[in-house]
Amino acid sequence: MKAVYWVEDCALTPLAFTSEENYMLIKEGQTAVANQAQFSLNDKPFFASLFTEEQRIGLEDELLELRHAGAISVEHSNDLTWFETLCVLSIQEAVSKSKIDFSVSKNLFILSTTKGNIELIDTPDDARLPLQTTAQRILKACGIDAFPLVVSNACISGVSAIITAQRFLVAGEYENAIVCGADIITEFVAKGFQALNATADGHSKPYDASRNGINLGEAAATVVLSTSHFSSIQVKGGSVSNDANHISGPSRTGAELAKTAELALAESGMHATDLAFISAHGTATVFNDEMESKAFELAGLSEVPLQSLKPHFGHTLGAAGVLESIISIKAIKEGIVLPSLNYNDYGVSGKITVNQKKQAVYQRNILKTASGFGGCNASVVYSKK
After folding, report:
1. What tens digit of pLDDT does each residue of 126-174 get?
2. Are 333 and 232 within 8 A, CB to CB?
3. Domains annotated on the chain, with CATH
4. How far apart are CA 162 and CA 179, in angstroms?
5. ∠ at Cα 24 (22, 29), nearest 5°?
6. 24 φ, ψ to 5°?
7. List of residues 6+ apart from 255 with CB closer than 8 A
8. Beta 107-112 vs 147-151: how paired, if at all?
């Protein structure tokens, strides 16, 4: 089977504008999650990780500089939405660092998102809402020759998009793949989650006994994968499942997520003892964390250190799987596992090992998992050579 290499990446978040800066700040225990009063509903505090107005202005200025420098298409980048701007900036950074000439090879572009241009809803520009249209606009602005594909599968979109790209590359359909995961938080999105009573009234606490909901977040994260440009990280194998339990509630047994973990490890030729850590979904909702704990116990992963990055970024929806993979890969390159922020007291029935402090690890492989509305689950394995 062809090896699929993780060549370059860019994480663009309210915490920092590069993968490296985000990783360094997370190692210091920093978070971009804060009380966002403008989105409060019924006077309940709403905690999320959102770009500030100052950050937005700075990023829009950066886009103008790229246009003036000819790094992106002047013709197709003069009418971008905020969502499209984040995607273009993240893609441009990752692609430029990769040093791959995308004009001489067969390339795939995957946009991973749950809401896309949701800011255009109920506006005269709502004809631009279809996600395929958005993907094509982003590609044109970047000036990249690639086949556009959209993966929009609730909160597993990012992990699912990486698995999809890996499968296309292994099959020889494409030589390189660009996967961009992105979502923004609008009033429509915020109040939808609030209406489900899914949001926390403070900072989220994955797997903790006192957890009471998620923090949302916005971000754009891009990874460049290739079969011909080598790196120290490989995408080894992955699996997707659906438990068909409920439109928003996850499986009560965790069996379906457990199956994706087992299949991803089997495809990668690995066992639980080969894993350095699990980068879990960890939304801090009562049902998600409980389901995950049962799944990891069923899959024989109880002793593997586990952590969630959502207390740092919030739940970034379609960006989450890509963004959290980027940070986890930075950690395995350094040979450490990061702590799960805000965790204090064990609060799930399944047996898991929630990591509480930064520590060295000697295994060279990561399991990244995700779960989402509609009962979808995904697992992917990354390996350091």
Report:
1. 888 999 999 999 999 999 999 999 999 999 999 999 999 999 999 999 9
2. yes
3. 5-226 (3.40.47.10), 235-384 (3.40.47.10)
4. 7
5. 90
6. -65, -40
7. 243, 295, 298
8. parallel
